[in-house]
Amino acid sequence: LLSRSFAKAYPDVWEQIMLPRIQADYTGLQPTMTHEFCAWLHQRGWLRRIYTQNVDGLHLHPSLNIPSEKVVECHGSMRNGNLVLYGDPISTRVVDCCDQDFGDNNVDLMLVMGTSLQVAPFCAIPNMAPKGCTRVLVNACIQDGFGNDCNGFVTTTTRIGKRKHVSLKSLWNDVKANKKWNQLLVETKCDDFVRHFYSFV
């Protein structure tokens, strides 16, 4: 139902039923501890970018004071009314930011939190991390991040910006990937991870 083909085929259903229901789901939401953790990283100068699949706009909540240039809403947002549906291309901003962030091999830590990495091409972004980078995957069910539909496809790469062949596969339990990156897998809820992290600060 959340595809561009559905929205075009049934515009009345999309506009009168589906879109209002989606908008209602995001009314009155407030940032979580994990959103506040992102703001904490920014305040200390440690945050290069946030790439999010979420369409709730909470990373740009006024209480967090995270600059908009630090946040890439890969699937759009309800706030701006620019949802990216299945079948839509990713925005030029996603491409441009990926080129900026991963073009100089200057990323030393990538936190991947609260996603099962099932949706392409977003699932390829963690695989753009440069060699030697530490990648941390935090998810309530870590097994969800170990495979996606792309693992069974013949074509398993995609182009993102200047990078022509970015793997769409989940590489978190791949032997070669463990040689390319330092990887930490944490099976817990994101807020619990952040709470545990703060206990050491």
Give a structural overview.
The protein is of the alpha/beta class. It contains 6 helices and 7 strands. The strands form 3 sheets. It has a 3-stranded parallel β-sheet. The chain is globular, with a radius of gyration of 17 Å. The mean pLDDT is 90.
Short description:
The chain is an alpha/beta fold and 201 residues long. Helix content is 29%, strand content 16%.
Strand order of the largest sheet: 3-4-7
Strand content: 15-25%
* Annotation field: number of helices: 6
Mean pLDDT: 90
Oligomeric status of the shown chains? single chain
Please report the total strand number as a whole number. Answer: 7
What proportion of the residues is helical, as a percent range?
A: 25-40%
Element layout with pairings:
Layout: H1 4-9, H2 11-25, H3 33-43, E1 50-52, E2 71-73, H4 92-102, E3 109-113, E4 134-139, E5 157-160, E6 163-167, H5 175-180, E7 182-187, H6 190-198
Parallel strand pairs: 1-2, 3-4, 4-7
Antiparallel strand pairs: 5-6
Which features characterize this protein?
201 residues; alpha/beta; three-stranded parallel β-sheet; two-stranded parallel ribbon
